[in-house]
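Give me C-alpha cells for this 342-residue protein.
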Amino acid sequence: MLKIDGSYGEGGGQIIRTAIAMSAITNQPVRIVNIRKGRSQPGLRPQHVTGVNAAAKICGAKVRYNQLGSTELEFEPGKRMHGKFQFNVGTAGAVTLVLQTLVPVAAFGKDCSTFEIIGGTDVKFAPTIDYFMHVFSRNMKIIGLNISTDEVRRGFFPKGGGKVRIVVHPWKTKKKFDAVSQKKLEHIDVHSICSESLRKNDVGERQLGGFKSTFLPNHQKLILEEKVIYAPSLSSGTSIHAHAHFKNCKLGVVELGEKRVPAEDVGTECAHKLLTEIGSGATVDHRMADQILIFLAFGKGGRFKTSRISEHLRTNAWVIQQFLPKVSIKINDQTKIVEVKN
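Here you go.
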C-alpha cells in the first residue's frame, strides 16, 4: 500500500483529492497520513469525507478511517463503474472540490457517468460552478474530454443547498495540451451572480459596473459579453466570474461578495484579477494549473504557461509522481512554464 504524507507541501485537501483519484485510476491502494496536520482544524472535513465516499462508490473501494477529523485514511480501489450517482456534501461544502476527485476517475469509465451533487456552488477556497463550467470544462475539451453541466441551483455559505448535475463522457480520444504563449484575445465573458433577495439593491448590476469601470479602460475595443443572474438560494450570497477567450486558451477568475464589502469593490477586484492573468502571458490560470496536471499525466502530456507557481501546483505534481514515477513534470520558476511528459 502506497503511503502519502498528507502534510507535504500545501498540506491540505488537494493531497486527498489527487491521491484518491490517482489510486482509483491506477488501482493502487493508498494510505494517507498526517491529513491537514498544520491546519486550525486538522483532519478530514465534510467535503473530503463526501469526496472519498463518492470515489469509493464509483470504483468499489474499501475505505478505512474516512470520518470527520480523521488524520489518517486508507483507500483500496476495486472495479471502476459508471452510471448515475447522487452525493450530498452537506451545508456549503464545495461541490467542485468533490468533482476534482470524481471527474478524473469517471473519465476512464466505459460509458458516461452522471453526478448529482448537493452542496455549495459559490463558496470560499474553491472554484465556483461557473468556473467549472466555463474554464475547467473548456480546458478539458481541448485535451479531448467532454463534460456537460445539465442543471445548477445556487448554494452559498452557510446553508449551501445548491445542486449540480454533471455528465462526464468517456475519455476516448486523448489530445496534447500545448500552449505556452497567448494567441489573439477574442472576447471576455462576465457573469455577476446574486441571490434573488439581493435584487432590490441592484447588487448584481453594481458588481458588473465595478468590473467594467476597471477592466474596460485597459481593453476598450474588446467585445464584452455580460450577464446579471439572480437565483433563489437558501443563504444570501454573490459571486462574479470572468473569463477571457483567447484563440488557443481560456483564463478565468472569480471573486465572492462579502458582508460590508461594497458590490462595486467586488467587481473591481475581479477585474484586477483578470487583468493580472491576462498580463502575465499565461495560457492556463493559476487555479487551473494544478487541476490539469492529472489529466496531462494520464493523457498525451503537454506544456502550458501559468501566471504563478502555486504550492497547490507543486504538491499536485509530487502526489502524481508518487503513483507515476516515470511521468516527468518540470516546473520552471523563471518562465512559469510547466511541461508534462509520459
